[in-house]
Amino acid sequence: MYAAPIGTAVMANEAYRLAETVAAAMLAGWVAERTVDTGLKARGTAPLAGLAGLYIGRALWAWGGWSPGPTVGGFPVVPAVAGAFAVCALLKLVRLGAAGPRW
After folding, report:
1. Contact assessment for residue 61 and residue 82, using Cβ atoms and an 8 Å cutoff
2. Which of left, alpha, beta for 4 (phi over 0: left; psi -120 to 50: alpha)?
3. What are phi and psi of 72, to 5 degrees?
4. 14-30 pLDDT, tens per residue?
């Protein structure tokens, strides 16, 4: 038997699903970074928080046994947003700890 070639429609659907997931994660990271205000002025903080939050939030949600809710591109939205907020809160704590005491 020969391996069946993957059609362009299947590859286009996978690429669209991946782009949809990345866009949703980056939007979640942007919203979380603007809300928490980490204070970091480095470029890419918000997309990094969103992409890291996508996987961290999903892992924590599965560990807790909660319902993931609606999905975008096969990834749950609510855990991604919660994970992005957790990453931004951790970045804020790191920044505050690095700043030292204020008195």
Report:
1. yes
2. beta
3. -125, 115
4. 888 888 888 888 899 99
Q: Enumerate residues 6+ apart whose C-beta is below 8 A from 87.
A: 29, 32, 48, 49, 52, 53, 56
Residue 57 lies in a domain: yes
Total domain count, the chain: 1
Query: What does residue 7 show for φ and ψ, rounded to 5 degrees?
Result: -75, 160
Q: Is the pTM of this model over 0.85?
A: no
Output phi, psi for 44, to 5 deg.
Answer: 85, 5
Answer yes or no: is 2 within a domain: no
CA distances to 1, 2, 3, 6, 7 from 53, in Å: 42, 40, 37, 31, 32
